[in-house]
Amino acid sequence: KSLEIAISSVEPRKLIRNAMTISDEILMIEQDKYDLKKFERILIVGGGKATAQMAIALDELLKTSSKIEYEGFLNIPEDQELKLLTPTKNIKMNLASHPIPNEAGLNGVNKMLELVESSSKRDLIICLFSGGGSALLPMPKKNINITDIQKINSLLLASGASIHEINTIRKHISDFKGGKLAKRIYETSKATTLTIIISDVVGNKLDSIASGPTIPDLTSFNDAYNVLLKYNLLDRIPMSAKAVIMEGVKNPRLENPSENDPVFENVHTYLIGSVELSVEEVSNYLRKHDFEIDYFSNKISGEAADFGKGLFYLITEKLKKYPKEPEKSRIAMIGTGELTVTLRGKGIGGRNQEMLLNLLNTIKSEKIDY
């Protein structure tokens, strides 16, 4: 039941409905108001594992509560069957590959850029981003092709690098990520842009969610270079990408747009869902059932196998604080974050499974009943 509540609390359609309303052509997001009568049309772009459902809810809101014209284009994972999604006449959904980008994803990003480059100051652009957007939204820099991007992603995903480190590389070899979509919009039309985000990233680092296409980049080419050194990848990535990063290290003018850059002056960002919301909902439910909540970490990271083994000792240490009678010791330990798996052989990795199996193996080796 707790798992069901955790998932339900961040259901994308529910989050959009809770965050956005329209009344008398006034769009409300949180406490902000946007008068839709001042805009000629709405353009919707984005990508991620949750954006199809976000778009379906947004489509329902616009077609039932407003007269404004709108259209959009999104990249969503190819395993999300279009026939199972509520049809959206105005918002096209393009199936692309995750976690390794493909040509379909690149074609989809080109469609999005065509859309935003058709914008005027009188248009409102809404960007929908969620976890998975980094892989689903490939747009390599000049001289880097999609095959190069696929190799780089494969190397990074197998290396044990954190999602923040992986996205640091992705942002610096892309012409879409790291604030560069915001730059494209600014150079085209300076259109008002609303970025709607559902986060699955530790600490809700906005520049890391979908690699922050409309968010100031807090990382640098030097950071990307150091990630490659750390995981011994500098001489393993394609030469095209290495050349881009090395040139960026030498030339600060090539850095991505950062804080206080004018390209963000018309960008308004809203984080409408995150793991903290799930934790709050689950904790409330468990407290009603007389569980004591031990939220032991919101920054779980590192190797899944190592964390699984270590979790056993963390649990046993914490249990020392509680009475031994089971009826007096209803404890719910909650931890959130994102683990990594360093691949060996041809496995595809499974973070939670690897963590849990290592926890169970440790319990078994310690001969403890569970």
Tell me what the structure shows.
- With 370 residues, the protein is an alpha/beta fold.
- It has 13 helices and 11 strands.
- It has helices at 2-9, 12-19, 51-65, 103-116, 133-136, 146-159, 163-172, 180-188, 221-230, 239-250, 275-288, 304-319, 351-365; strands spanning 20-23, 26-29, 32-35, 41-47, 69-77, 91-96, 123-129, 192-198, 267-273, 292-300, 331-337.
- α3 (51-65) links the parallel β4 (41-47) and β5.
- α1 runs antiparallel to α11 (275-288), α7 (163-172) packs across α9 and α9 crosses α10 (239-250).
- The longest helix is centred in the C-terminal third of the chain and has 16 residues, at 304-319.
- The protein is globular and about 65 Å long.
- The two termini are 20 Å apart.
- The model has no long low-confidence stretch (mean pLDDT 92).
- This is MOFRL-associated domain-containing protein.
What value does the average pLDDT take?
92
The count of DSSP E runs of length 2 or more, i.e. the number of strands, is 11
Basic shape: globular
Strand order of the biggest β-sheet = 6-5-4-7-8-9
Which regions contain 5 or more consecutive residues with pLDDT less than 50?
Answer: none
Main structural class: alpha/beta
User: Helices and strands, in N-to-C order?
Assistant: HHEEEEHEEHEHHHHEHHEHEHEH
Domain MOFRL: 332-364
Pfam family, one: DUF4147
GO molecular function: glycerate kinase activity
Organism: marine sediment metagenome
Describe, in short, the structure shown.
One of its GO terms (cellular component) is cytoplasm. The protein is α/β, with parallel strands linked by helices and 370 residues long.
